[in-house]
Design brief:
The protein is an alpha/beta fold. It contains 19 helices and 20 strands. The strands form 5 sheets. An 8-stranded parallel beta sheet has the order 12-7-6-5-4-3-14-13. Strands 15, 16, 17, 18, 19 and 20 form a 6-stranded antiparallel beta sheet that branches. A hairpin with a 2-residue loop joins strand 1 and strand 2.
């Protein structure tokens, strides 16, 4: 299950996995698989990213290049133009932003704009990308993109002829082939290197070997013209336009390694050729597939560690749909526990993929969310820590329901309570009693009630303030909704006509929750204004030792007492 001891350091953030984390997909592209064009406008993309945060996303994954089967590669300058304003705006709202890119220039610019994670679909096989991330503090996602099984070899039907004439003819053919090979040998040396000689792998500083790109693997050079792949045999014909079929002219094989691999993947999925040989099992053998996937992920993680990237910054992703058939993707998902045993945070990125459609019978990609949730649940139960989904609101609701029943997990949180209208202390006590009635929540401790100067809007009566410590099993956004219901029931006016920091019967702020970091318009955790509010920090001293030190450790800037707002001026009694 996801509630394990792994943590993931991503820049200034640290994600714990006492519950699964949700990564929302934000494609700033015109041609993505299931939502192409919906968020291509930058303002629309920013608005949608904030909506995903308010719906329950822990991370927003921003991408400016579609990597769907048959995609067209995007120039890094164009990709940067698409994503950088979106990354900057979301990071400003406290979001943990992941940049989904394979281009080092885009990754660098995005991190400067506030991105905390680099999600590289080519698995950091570019030494320049490794050089960049080792000098930063961002989290990294190593993804496997590539075929996981050797191409099937077809065998021609052979009919035996035992006649003497056939025997003589066969011997003559063998002698002719041998003579041709002997004559060809001198021509097989080019520029001092034999054909088929292995390539020299790139080396990073410190002698670390950078493996070759898994998604661009080529077959060894053929020995003779008759053994060349069909595409190579057709090369001379490609030079003469009149001999090239129209279909080949319309869809040339892309030179980009990733694009070529994804196109091959689509062809493998579609080009089923019936054979007389029946399979004995419903799925291919998992051993060779997992050796290739887990071997690559382990090797690349070690390459990053040897280059200077700390282990707790690395997350792995088996790359569902990237060069893999539906059968192979199912095999990989069933082996989630083995991948989780590698010790790195593990991502399940299956949202709306082709294999999800295959197992659910749903053709339209955008209609595969329910099936996606089922696959993700299986992955979570087997040890996946992060799920990457398009429908954040739906999955957050699905996960909250499942987690409440399957994983008892009370967590500590602090709620600030304030009032300066009516019977202030009675309002605070009423709020405490109503908080204790929230499902899966109890009040474990309370501070004394203090009187404080008004903050921000100073022309109003003094406030009564207190801090309530609770234990809850609710998700942060669900708990916040419950607190807002209490405010409304006690007469808090949150309409547009009310002043934001003006007089109120009750004010409830969720300040901090164990293990939670959150950004967005609806909720920020830890509360961004804790460090400047005297009317929060002083009552907290009743509940913990040195709250200023505690919140500084959690990344909150805490001001000195004389520089704070809403200073405490007296004590009004106990809760």
């Amino acid at each position: 299950m996801a509630n394990d001891s792994k943590t993931w350091r991503c820049g200034k953030y640290e994600l714990s996995f006492d519950r699964p984390r949700i990564m929302g997909v934000l494609n700033v592209t015109p041609d993505s698989m299931s939502d192409g064009g919906e968020h291509f406008d930058q303002d629309a993309a920013i608005e949608y990213g904030l909506a995903m945060l308010d719906a329950g996303a822990d991370i927003i994954d921003v991408g400016g290049e579609s990597t769907r089967p048959g995609f067209t590669p995007v120039n890094p300058d164009e990709e940067a133009r698409r994503v950088l304003p979106v990354v900057r705006a979301l990071a400003k709202e406290g979001a943990i932003v992941s940049i989904d890119t394979r281009h080092v220039a885009v990754a660098k610019a995005a991190v400067r704009c506030g991105a905390s994670i680099v999600n590289d679909v080519t698995g950091f096989t570019d030494p320049k990308m490794v050089e960049f991330v080792k000098t930063s503090t961002c989290g990294v996602i190593v993804m496997h993109a590539g075929e996981v099984a050797a191409p099937a070899r077809t065998h021609a039907t052979v009919q035996l002829d035992t006649s003497a004439a056939a025997f003589v003819a066969e011997k003559a053919r063998e002698a002719a082939v041998e003579a041709a090979r002997e004559a060809e040998k001198p021509a097989r040396r080019r520029r001092g290197k034999l054909l088929g000689e292995p390539k020299v792998e790139a080396k990073l500083p410190g002698g670390v070997v950078q493996p070759s790109l898994p998604l661009g693997e080529s077959e060894p050079a053929p020995e003779s013209e008759s053994e060349k792949p069909a595409a190579e045999q057709a090369a001379p014909a490609a030079a003469a336009p009149e001999t090239v079929p129209a279909a080949a002219e319309a869809a040339p094989e892309p030179s980009d390694h990733l694009a070529a691999m994804m196109r091959r993947s689509a062809r493998r999925e579609e080009a089923y050729v019936p054979t007389s040989q029946l399979r004995r099992f419903t799925l291919p053998d998992s051993a060779p597939i997992m050796r290739r996937v887990m071997g690559f992920l382990s090797d690349q993680a070690r390459t990053l560690i040897h280059a200077g990237v700390s282990r707790d910054r690395i997350c792995i992703d088996p790359g569902s749909g990237f060069g893999k058939t539906a059968n192979e993707d199912i095999v990989i998902q069933r082996e989630t526990a083995k991948m989780a045993s590698l010790g790195y945070p593990l991502m399940c990125a299956v949202s709306r993929k082709r294999f999800v459609g295959a197992v659910s019978g749903v053709t339209q990609a955008a209609a595969r969310d329910a099936a996606t949730f089922g696959v993700c649940l299986g992955a979570i139960q087997a040890g996946a820590n992060i799920v990457r989904v398009h429908d954040v609101a739906g999955f957050a609701q699905f996960l909250n329901g499942y987690w409440a029943v399957a994983e008892p997990q009370p967590r500590r949180a602090f709620v600030a309570v304030g009032s300066n209208l009516g019977h202030r202390c009675d309002n605070i006590r009423a709020a405490r009693n109503m908080i204790a009635e929230i499902p899966l929540t109890c009040v474990s401790n309370c501070s004394r009630i203090y009187e404080s100067e008004p903050a921000y809007e100073t022309r109003q009566d003094t406030f009564a303030n207190a801090i309530i410590e609770i234990k809850t099993e609710l998700a942060p956004l669900v708990l916040l909704d419950e607190l807002m219901k209490i405010e409304a029931e006690l007469g808090r006016d949150r309409s547009k006509k009310a002043k934001a920091n003006g007089p109120r019967t009750i004010d409830l702020d969720l300040l901090w929750m164990d293990g939670e970091t959150h950004g967005g318009k609806k909720l920020r955790l830890p509360h961004p204004l804790i460090g400047e509010r005297d009317f929060v920090l002083v009552p907290l001293e009743d509940l913990m030792h040195d709250p200023a030190r505690f919140f500084r450790y959690n990344g909150v800037e805490v001001k000195e007492p004389e520089d704070r707002v809403g200073h405490i001026v007296g004590e009004l009694g106990r809760m």
